[in-house]
Amino acid sequence: MKRAFLYLVILTVTTSMALQISSAADGNVRVRHTVIAATGDAAPEGGNYLLSSFSNVGLNSRHDVVFDASVGSTTGVFVNDGKTTSTIALGDNGSVSNPFITPNGNVVFNVNNADIYRTDGKSIVPLVQVGDSAPGGGTLVQTLERATNDSGIVAYSAFVSDSTATQGIFRSDGTQTVAIARDDVTTPTGGSFTLVGNTVINERGQVAFYSNMIGGSAEFGIFRGEGGDLTPIFVSNQIAPGGTTFADFGNPVINNHGQIATTCSLNNNTSGIFVGDGTDTVAIAVQGQSAPKSTSYSGQFIAPTRLNDQGEVAFAARLTGATSASGIFRGDGKLTIPIALTGTNAPGTTGTFAAFRDIQLLNDGRVAFIAALTPGVGGVNASNNLGIWIGKSDEDLQLVVRTGDVIEGKVLTRLPQFSQAAKQFDINENDVLWVGTFGIAKAVVLSRLPGDSEVQ
Question: What is the predicted pLDDT for the residue at 29?
């Protein structure tokens, strides 16, 4: 595979960041919107950001924003520090994409959807490259996905050649690569892996993943590992809370205590959301059980599921038995709090919630989400039917931004839809980062909420 030529660019461009202050009345927080980058804007090294830009964005606690973009005939990864935008890496005869920024400003990104690099802004170092030796034997021939923690350590799944293994899960910090799981090693339930993926990593370097298996006591499972023995968190035929057994699982999410949340199907043809740590398993929401506001879960739990370090899960679910067809909730297995329900008033508007898109969850329990409003109710139409809200419950929800708002003299017309393949919505403390559409243009926008001294 021809590898992209990477180079650092010391050029920076001072961004002309227009601000929009939204009203603090009627469910609106006082928000400062900053346009970080927009299609048509000049990129630091020349050329302009194209319409295919901004597939992945992210931010850290310093308010640094990272994004990928197409510029001319190439692609790049860029960082904005609130004053200037700097080019972190450019691809030549290849692509750079999918950036992640750590709290200290290091950036991890993909090259040609295969290799993985990290930079501190001064030098670029490879973390994973096709052709590297695979721990346990063999050669890496293709990386499939990547998860990154705040220390810049990556976990990834990859195909392996020249070995008894064909695939595996690995972790790398740039100095040492560790095998988390390989399909030529016996699983904790006996037999072998036939598929491993959906990799996630926490700050302790613990890696969790989903698997298919053959020849043992379970066909499906979610495991956690650090480079030694694997810990089964959920496996098919395992007894679930309530007495039934697990059948299969969705994508895992992991917190910094090693707890893992996932959607599970059960052998009685129901489903639920559970949290486990390898010792204890807690049911968060189960099909047929009561939900807040006199409803019941219908069994359709809608991606994504989020987990914080308090063991709380934010999730969206279909409902039955009441006027609301679906809702967003936050629960820890003991207490479940409604965040938003369809058919109820959307704070900051005279409309009602109709459907939900992406969800983000903070450690303090605040949930940020993108929602659609019901057309024809409270003056809602196609020009103003999408918004972002944040709050700990349905009693303190605040509107952050809504289509129809004017930012930098342009009208917001669209907000992102959740996608497994892209990240266009992020949150950190008092920042909400999102990619919006303004007519035919796209922009990366940072919305700053009250509580930050720079917003007061």
Answer: 58
Q: What is the DSSP letter of 206?
A: -
Rounded CA Rg of the chain = 22
First to last CA, the chain: 51
Nearest Cα neighbor of 370 from 416, 305, 430 is 416
Contact 356, 316 (CB under 8 A): yes
Q: What is the pLDDT of residues 208-222, one digit of tens each?
A: 999 999 999 999 999
Q: How many helices (H) and strands (E) does the chain have?
A: 0, 38
d(CA 17, CA 255): 35
Encoded tokens for 231 = 């810990």
Do residues 296 and 289 make contact, with C-beta atoms less than 8 angstroms apart? Answer: yes
Instruction: Give the neighbor-by-neighbor strand order of the sheet with 386-391.
Output: 353-361, 367-373, 386-391, 398-402
Q: Are 298 and 319 in contact (CB under 8 A)?
A: yes
Q: Name every residue whose Cβ is closer than 8 Å to that of residue 428 and which is 6 or more positions away in sequence.
A: 59, 60, 61, 362
CA neighbor of 169 nearest in space, from 187, 182, 160, 152: 182
Read off the DSSP letter of residue 132.
P
Q: CB–CB of 313/307 below 8 Å?
A: yes
Place of tokens 């461009």: 13
- Sign for the pseudo-dihedral over CA of 324, 329, 334, 335: negative
pLDDT range class, residue 420, cuts 50, 70, 90: confident
The tens digit of pLDDT for each residue in 156-182 reads: 999 999 999 999 999 999 999 999 999
- Is residue 112 within 8 A of residue 136, CB to CB? The reply is no
d(CA 160, CA 131) in angstroms, rounded, equals 9
Q: Rounded distance, CA 222 to CA 304, Å?
A: 17
Name residue 201's amino acid.
I
Q: Which residues of 229-240 are buried (b: 16+ CB within 10 A; e: fewer)?
A: ebbbbbbbebeb
Q: What is the mean pLDDT of residues 376-397?
A: 97
CA–CA gap between residue 390 and residue 347 (Å, rounded): 10
Q: What is the dihedral of CA 100, 443, 424, 125, to 10 degrees?
A: -20
Q: How far apart are CA 262 and CA 255, in angstroms?
A: 12
DSSP state of 387: E
Query: Rounded distance, CA 98 to CA 54, Å?
Result: 10
